[in-house]
Amino acid sequence: MQKNIVILGTQWGDEGKGKIVDYLSQNSSYVVRYHGGHNAGHTLVVENKKIVLHIIPSGLLHPNVIGIISNGVVISISELVKEIEMLKKHNFFIKKRLFISHSASLILPFHITMDIVREKKLGVNSIGTTGRGIGPAYEDKVARRSLRVGDLKDENKLSIKLKNIVDYYNNQLVSIYQHASFNYKIILKDLLKFKNIINDMIVDTTMMLHKAIQNKKSIIFEGAQGSLLDIDHGTYPYVTSSNSTIGGVITGTGVGPKNLDYILGVTKVYSTRVGNGPFPTELFNNIDEYLSKKGNEFGSTTGRKRRTGWLDGVALRYSIQLNSLSALCITKLDVLDNLKEIKICTAYQDINTLEIYTNVSFVNLENIKPIYETYPGWMQNTSGIKKIEDLPKAAKNYIKSIEKIAGIPVDMISTGPDRNDTILVRNLFV
Ligand code: IMP
């Protein structure tokens, strides 16, 4: 049956979306990355091989799936080519199955430099970006001066546009940041080299998706980052520069909301955040150490240690509302296996007025402390379990509590990094 599924993160990214996209892509014809850039890091384990994708849609590891990088993404062509080559080494051949929107904006070397020098200048007030040039590239898009993928097709125009934008960046880099200037001719030469590799992939992806919908093909929309990093609805300014909530699918692809059949919110059973900004349930004790180690909570893009905390039910409810989620997919359940007690934050308390809040907007998170409910752990191995009935009773109860707090069902559970370490509570394709 045809079904268009959005898979997005409900927290601050790193919920384990890549694996879920890979798993559900088995039943779909298309998989689409629709926002963000190579700041994302989607880790997949397939046939004992660990593969980390930053820009290529995760579902492409299935040989019959067609991948699309749509207009909402900011693309570093050099990183894309690197990733295509990496996959080739692992015997995944995707060239004829990957298409890139002609309207996607490019990330160029000066965006990356600008991201890094700005963060350095901000010092203790830095955002903690991934240093991949995401913010500057989206700024150029909104300021209508981006180089777009389609510009690669016309060398003359490309050269003029590139010179203008390099001048624009050089002015700031040299005068404000005392950084060396860029030579546009060197960047142009690289772009033309990469263009030859990706030329056949450049298409109008919006039309391609409209056609796929007309032909009743199933499409997976693959979110990056997480809802609380959304430029509008996240913990601004400690956010990424795109819409990681549901609106990003629509503007980032040109597919209308009525064509989205099911929206799955991927939620890790505890919270993590990499980079700076508010994090109400953050832990600084031996549980942090445990979660970091057992959950391997180190950034797959930057290698940074992720901050860890208990699952935040207030944040989860906020994400459910922001995204009209149909259901949740719970990930990393097995990471909790050795904990005697597990906590979930169910409300926030204002530390001055003592008022209790169960629904808040994440735009203002000052002066609050989390209120927790405590659940018994199961102290049993759940790693690799594939059927819900095989889970320990305390784990089943814990999942039921999440459903109660969320007010929507848990349709999937991930019990390990491998594609097959998955419990499908309900068949999403019927
Ligand atoms: P940027 O997206 O590189 O500009 O970084 C902005 C914020 O988003 C920083 O706190 C990053 O650590 C965070 N961020 C960006 N991409 C990811 C991701 O894929 N997972 C988790 N955090 C991310």
UniProtKB/TrEMBL annotation:
Superkingdom: Bacteria
Annotated active site: 14, 42, 141
Gene3D superfamilies assigned: Adenylosuccinate Synthetase, subunit A, domain 1, Adenylosuccinate Synthetase, subunit A, domain 2, Adenylosuccinate Synthetase, subunit A, domain 3
InterPro entries, A to Z: Adenylosuccin_syn_GTP-bd, Adenylosuccin_syn_Lys_AS, Adenylosuccinate_synth_dom1, Adenylosuccinate_synth_dom2, Adenylosuccinate_synth_dom3, Adenylosuccinate_synthetase, P-loop_NTPase
Cellular localisation: Cytoplasm
Binding sites annotated in the UniProt record for GTP: 13-19, 41-43, 306, 332-334, 414-416
Entry binding sites for substrate: 300-306
Keyword entries, A-Z: Cytoplasm, GTP-binding, Ligase, Magnesium, Metal-binding, Nucleotide-binding, Purine biosynthesis
Any one of the GO CC terms: cytoplasm
Quaternary assembly: Homodimer.
Family of this protein: Belongs to the adenylosuccinate synthetase family.
Protein name, UniProt field: Adenylosuccinate synthetase
Organism: Buchnera aphidicola (Aphis aurantii)
Lineage, top ranks: Bacteria, Pseudomonadati, Pseudomonadota, Gammaproteobacteria, Enterobacterales
